Amino acid sequence: MKVRKAVIPAAGLGTRMLPATKTVPKEMLPMVDKPVIQYIIEEAVASGIEDILIVTNRAKSAMDDYFDYYPELETRLNQAGKDKELAEVRQAADLANIFYVRQKETKGLGHAIWRAKRFVGDEPFAVLLGDDIMRAEKPVTKQLVEAAEKYDASAVGVQKVSTQAISRYSSVKVDALEERIYAVSDMNEKPKPEEMFSNFAILGRYVLTPEIFDILEQVKPGYGGEIQLTDGLKELCQKRRMVAVDFEGRRYDTGNLNGFLEATIDFALDHPGTGPWLKRFIQEKAARM
Ligand code: G1P
Fold first, then answer.
1. If pLDDT is split at 50, 70 and 90, which confidence band does 85 have?
2. Fold of the domain spanning 5-275
3. What is the distance between the alpha carbons of residues 183 and 22, in angstroms, rounded to a whole number?
């Protein structure tokens, strides 16, 4: 099994970040000095992915523009001798082979993934949710790809969350296979505490086999009246082997304000251009609080 393709669903309406995301896609909000989606693409590339499909909608064309060349700007930067900025602007456009498809109707994550059917063809593929940024020594998608290859299985990235928090995620039924890797036999989306299978929640990363597309075609609307990917995966794990990887790394949900701010502060503290200054700024503030 070789995973060369990835799908990034980025067609949500961004309703948890309004009014900022009324006209700016939430994936394009700046995380220190790069848009959120660039971190996701960089993770995919660092995990060995060559071709990436972004599932967008009619309000998200800023994303396609960002990953394109911009000759007027580049000429101006070149003339001004701004080599660093020029290299950064070009690098974003040269990161990967990026393709786009529109979801056309906002019918849920499962429906967005189903739009990738023609792009994916008959290969396993990774899914990286467009607002979940990961910080990890080994890219989280790579951790999943390695497990999927080892077990010739599909894979979902999980971490333990509190019983109170599980209703924001999907909960998976697991049996241990080895350290950090589990066999998956069932799951449900946004369970109430009494319905959950375990505290392991799927957090934004998947490696799927193409059987998922025929399943998604049949899946009925579930939680929130939407076609849920989790409902498709529940069926997939019963047909074919699926593993859960308790991945190493920190996940930031940049699709809500708190997660976005946590990521901004952590990334800015680590950034050589802003870190030392921000640390002093926070210390001074904290001393006066
Ligand atoms: C989606 C998935 C859910 C998953 C979560 C976090 O939910 O449907 O299964 O646990 O992402 O990755 P959403 O955040 O879109 O409500």
1. very high
2. Spore Coat Polysaccharide Biosynthesis Protein SpsA; Chain A (3.90.550)
3. 41
